[in-house]
Amino acid sequence: MPVPAKFGAQVDRLPERIYSPEVDMGTDRGLFVEDPAAIPVYEGRMVEAFDHRAKRYVSGRGRSAQWDELRFGTPSKQISPQWHIPESSIPDKLRGRWQRYRIGFCDVGGVTNARFFMAALIPPGVVCGHSVPTIEFSEPVAELIPFWLGVANAFCMDFIVRKKGANHITKTILDSLPLPRRYSGSAADKAIAARSLLLSATGPEMREFWLTTAPLLGLDPSKDAPVEEIGKRHELRSEVDVLEHIPIAWHRCL
């Protein structure tokens, strides 16, 4: 019987997960401006499970900063950051990364929060601070992104992460989690990915990803649409939680 690889190890024929804290909110502070015409900078509180527009910056700085919750279905639901960064100041290390769709997660866990681990689809045209590390995959399999988000945001994954006993979801902790590195196309994988896409691809900035990925998951962009109605979102999230408990071949998580 083959010996399973350690979580996070590079495995032949499986996509590599490319992890990056994009800019540091402390050491890169000199790059930030308040010009809304510049590139938005994401902070941790802007990201919740399946939601890249969770909160809107209002006023203040640091721990005294005021942020308002942005509810789905309201006109104010849009990317509303505290800081921006001129395109000319974006670090070379990001290259085209900031111009692609990718996964982002809030690395600050809270044991009193409804969910400890919260990840969302991040659109092109934004840069993420260090409290929202981002993930890409070495192979451009569009379905893998919503599938990964569905698994990451499921109740059972949240239960596992809480057992790690840390306030931050570090790369070491991330590597210890049974997160997928491939999309098999099985009925269960497809069901999770489709519901995750309906939850994640909200807002005009996600339209290209939606139009490209929806048909791959059995959704019709001319009839179906990303879901903003709160009751329906609760229903979809509950279905993802149930689907993730269905026995799925663990080799997908190598």
Indicate the structural class: alpha+beta
User: Ranges with pLDDT <50 over ≥5 residues?
Assistant: 247-254
Binned, the helix content reads 10-25%
Order of strands across the main sheet: 1-9-6-7
Sheet with the most strands?
4 strands, antiparallel
Instruction: Name the quaternary structure.
Output: single chain
Distance between the ends: 15 Å
Q: How many whole angstroms does the radius of gyration measure?
A: 18 Å
Structure report:
This protein is α+β, with helices and mostly antiparallel strands and 254 residues long. It has one domain. Helix content is 22%, strand content 13%. It contains six helices and nine strands. It has helices at residues 144-152, 155-162, 171-175, 187-200, 207-213, 230-243, and strands at residues 17-20, 39-42, 55-59, 66-69, 83-85, 102-105, 119-122, 127-128, 134-137. A four-stranded antiparallel sheet has the order 1-9-6-7, covered by helices on one side. A three-stranded mixed sheet has the order 5-2-8, with no helix packed on it. Strands 3-4 form a two-stranded antiparallel ribbon. The protein is globular and about 50 Å long. The chain starts with 16 loop residues before the first strand and ends in an 11-residue tail after the last helix.
